[in-house]
Amino acid sequence: MAHQDEIELKFELDSDAADRVRTHPLLAKADRRDWFQRTTYFDTEDGKLRNEGYTLRVRQIDDRFTQTVKTSSRSAGLFERQEWESAVRGMKPDCSALEDTPLARLNYLGRLEPVSRFAVKRTSWTVNIDRSSIEVVLDSGRFSAARRKAPLHELEIELKKGNPRAIFTLARKLSNAARLEIGVLSKDERGFLLARNMLGNEQKASASTVQRDMDIGEAVVLFVHECVRQLRLSQPAIVTRRDPDALHQARLAIRRLRSLFSFFRPAIPRNTLDPLRTQLRSFIEPFGQARNLDVFLARHGKELPSDDRRKLSRARGNAYGEVIEAMESQRSRDLFLDLIEWASTRRRAKSGVTDSLENFAGKQLDTMWEKIKRKSSMLPFLEENEIHRLRIAIKKMRYALEFMAGLYSAKKVGKFTEGLGNIQDCLGELHDDMFERQLIDTMSLDLVLRAEGAGRSRALERAQAHFRRLRKLDRVWSG
Length: 479
Prior knowledge:
By secondary structure, this protein is an alpha+beta fold. Helices cover 51% and strands 20% of the residues. Strands 1-5-4-3-2-6-7-8 form an eight-stranded antiparallel β-barrel.
């Protein structure tokens, strides 16, 4: 039984990019091996093994069969997972070979069945760069699950020895010649999603997996990976179907990333963060117009005459075109790789910040809440720009609480974030109303909205009522 930790950077690519990788000059000079392999992933019908946080596969290469247990990973690009391997006699799980793995304690191993199957040609190269030894592996083939099939082209860059930065150096060199998209799905996840006909659909942010024994740096790494994962999983549905829900999830992922950097700013060296903040601010710009048009058409599309609907549909198409261009650009691929490298190589907090994660988060949340309370007490008298800043502050605090939810009572966090969300929605109505009036005027649309003053008054009254209820709740981050 072999046990090891693996650190690898993963990319998704198409057949053209796969061919470009195979012929890249850096790999042409490296030692190369080619072979075919078949892999089957197993689980119970209701996914018990997956829910426990493990995967089980059996892989055939020539006449050799290897059974592997892995811990699940929800990383973006950089995969760090534990694994246990053993030789078995065929393509079915051997329960006796699982005695030295975490699966030995499970009582349902007899109910395991095939979930997905992969058949690929694997090519590997060993590359020496920056005094580091790196294995590059390219898989090309197909996989199937629940009578569905899909192509697979996947590139893995695994550090065998040396500096983790070297795998990013190599990745950028390969990316200059081939279109490499950060990979956020393991093979078992691909099979799971294909079996449920969910591959390529947008994904909402996953529940917080932060733990009390994490330090600040480890938490930042976790959250960056979660946001990039959410963004990348939303991308296919935006590009292929221009799906409004997927666009909303992608925009949300970018906003959560920006809020994350703001929340942890006191613990992060600013000179390392500013370039990423600038890139994210530029990247998100086209998403806002597309989202606003989606919301406007959903609310008022049926009220508009056909000429106006066509006019707005063209505007929406142009806005989505800009979003898709941004998401498919080399600049976005560089940004995602920059984010993963930044997170993976900066695990320590800024010198002088010695707080535990829980203490740091508590102080930050206290500061955010006090500012929000002060502004909320003056809500009826705030100018439009001040209401907008208050809404952004509320949004950032809600994101921060969602990130840190694993540290506190789930029930209390749920009630508090719900209250923040209600206030955010009320203030958001004012922002939407302003955008809608501007759009009607700019595009000369034949639509009359309700009286502006009455709508504003009702939204502010509801926001004040939510604030009063929220102030009565305990600070969930204070014990």
